[in-house]
Design goal:
The protein is about 40% helix and about 10% strand. It is of the alpha/beta class. The protein has a 3-stranded parallel sheet, with helices on one face. Helix 3 links the parallel strand 2 and strand 3. Helix 4 crosses helix 5. The longest helix is centred in the last third of the chain and has 22 residues. The two termini are about 25 Å apart.
Length: about 200
């Protein structure tokens, strides 16, 4: 897919239709971009930051830094950034099944009580108010989700721009939102829903 760039602002997009509450992004293309341009450092402001993934595989010094960032930003509201570090969708589902099996074994739940809601409450993304993404963007042109949010993306709209992540700017994000809104409008018309 070759996206067409749209001008406008986020506020204008909000007036044009349904906006995704949760946007997940697979940041692909960093190494390719770095070969050409070098790295840039971005600064985050008033964003609650949380990390998901296998923390036991991360060096202790990095785990300490992760805890510091989470602690320093835990009171922020409005924007929530979840960083997947050593994260695997298969591992997430597997650890969820093990956790539910352990709870059933200990009599905390009955096997017949296990449903989608219980599964979602055990996934690593339970830390977010919106654990299921409405839109998943993967930059860099690859058209696959590569073991990322396997359970969570069952009904997510997938968008695959060819632009590399470090070059993915405001115009590209607005194009993704336009694409999402067009898909939502088609879905709503098909099923007679109001947007």
């Amino acid at each position: 897919m070759t996206p067409q760039r749209h001008s406008g602002t986020l506020g204008e997009k909000e007036n044009q239709g349904t906006m995704p509450k949760h946007v997940a992004i697979i940041l692909d293309g960093n190494r390719r971009w770095a070969k050409k341009n070098g790295l840039k450092i971005a600064e985050r402001q008033k964003i609650k930051v949380m990390f998901i993934g296998k923390r036991e595989n991360i060096p202790a010094s990095l785990r300490d830094a992760i805890l510091e960032v989470e602690e320093a930003t835990k009171s922020y509201e409005g924007k929530h950034l979840i960083i997947a570090l050593d994260y695997s969708g298969r591992f997430d589902i597997l650890q969820t099944c093990k956790s539910l099996a352990e709870k059933a074994k200990n009599g905390l739940i009955q096997a017949e009580e296990i449903d989608e809601k219980l599964m979602e409450n055990e996934l690593m993304t339970k830390c977010s108010e919106f654990p299921i993404p409405d839109l998943l963007i993967r930059t860099g042109g690859e058209q696959r989700i590569s073991n990322f949010f396997l359970w969570q993306s069952a009904y997510t709209k997938l968008y695959f721009p060819t632009v590399l992540w470090p070059e993915f700017g405001k115009a590209d994000y607005l194009e993704a939102l336009t694409w999402y809104q067009q898909r939502e409008r088609r879905f709503s018309r098909r099923f007679g829903l109001r947007v």
